[in-house]
Write a structure and sequence with these properties.
The chain is an alpha/beta fold. The chain has 13 helices and 10 strands. Strands 1, 2, 3, 4, 5, 6, 7, 8, 9 and 10 form a 10-stranded mixed beta sheet that branches. Helix 2 crosses helix 10 and helix 10 packs across helix 13. The termini are far apart.
Length: 332
């Protein structure tokens, strides 16, 4: 081989390597914002009860975090639900969580420990209040629950918070006029099937896996929560303003609803953290939450409703600085 050919070969090899480096650089720029290395370390994420949407969403979100931030360890903590979740984040026992807006606002209005440090990351999806009874039950309204055995959720759950408020709006004292039970979605379906309770409240995304499973073994139906009760709640002000009168779509539990919608109450869920959590980490978390919507939504239907256009509305919480950076970076 001539010296000229050898020189040309080396030159082409160097040019090829340079092109490859440029392509790799562009790829890294696309995958890693500003060429940053993904955050590492350990965070704690408080989810919810087993068989609930918070828990399933949290598990799949942890998988998504693992793909985008492979050196970040995510510890999941089950919980009673929204009220316990808010407390954990506010007091530093968890770094991120999901909670219903009414529970968040209640915590702030009561000026409980760490309330001023709470920050929003993204508005996610709506919870729907679901009041379940056996199909042959004579309970046809919330008022009919008087004197009955009613599961109102664990003490620190969002279910307990909203169930007691709905009962009061219907003129029922939740401590005196019913026999209250602390069952949630984990034990409520089984207790209803066994006849140990007459009804149970659940507040969660649609559909909830625990209720889908119950439909395959037990005939049940939903009791309507009429708009008049929502109006009474709104009249009380405060955190009640986060309740919205709506209909549970007929497709939520098709084998149970038989093509009919069910009047009920919806309340939005917020992914939240604390003011002192690293902004760079929170920016990456926010990005993954938005990016993973379709992948998680294929398994958790509620996740399909996460939308970039509405995610920034985390009322009653102001946005965390890291989340704000992400939304600014994708603003058209």
């Amino acid at each position: 081989m001539s010296k000229l050919s050898s020189s040309l070969g080396r030159r082409r090899g160097l040019q090829g390597a340079a092109v490859g480096a440029v392509v790799l650089g562009l790829l890294l720029w696309w995958l890693l914002p500003l060429g940053e290395r993904p955050p590492s370390g350990t965070i704690t994420f408080s989810t919810g009860t087993t068989r609930g949407v918070y828990q399933e969403y949290g598990e799949r979100l942890r998988t998504a975090f693992g793909k985008d931030m492979p050196h970040l360890t995510v510890k999941l903590l089950t919980s009673d639900g929204s009220q316990e979740n808010v407390t954990r984040v506010a007091t530093g026992k968890a770094d991120f969580t999901i909670a219903a807006a009414d529970a968040v606002d209640t915590y702030e209005l009561e000026q409980r420990p760490g309330a001023a440090r709470l920050r929003g990351v993204a508005r996610l999806y709506d919870d729907y209040v679901q009041l379940i009874v056996a199909r042959d039950s004579r309970i046809n309204s919330v008022a009919d629950l008087r004197g009955k055995r009613v599961a109102v959720g664990p003490p620190e759950s969002g279910v307990r918070l909203i169930a007691e408020r709905v009962l009061k709006a219907a003129g029922i004292d939740p401590h005196q006029d019913i026999e209250p039970m602390a069952d949630g979605i984990g034990t409520g379906p089984g207790r209803l099937r066994q006849g140990s309770i007459d009804a149970f409240f659940w507040s969660g995304g649609l559909p909830t896996d625990g209720l889908k499973r119950l439909a395959s073994t037990f005939a049940y139906r939903f009791v309507p929560i009429e708009p008049e009760l929502v109006s009474k709640l709104h009249a009380e002000g405060g955190a009640m303003r986060y309740y919205r009168a709506t209909n549970m779509p007929e497709s939520a539990y098709s084998t149970v609803q038989n093509g009919s919608t069910v009047p009920t109450i919806a309340v939005s869920n917020v992914l939240m953290t604390r003011e002192d959590v690293d902004p760079r980490l929170t920016e990456w978390v926010t990005r993954t939450v938005i990016k993973s919507r379709d992948g998680i939504g294929a398994h958790v239907h509620s996740a399909q409703l996460v939308d970039l256009r509405t995610a920034i509305y985390t009322d009653p919480l102001v946005l965390h600085e890291g989340a704000r950076r992400y939304y600014r970076s994708v603003k058209p």
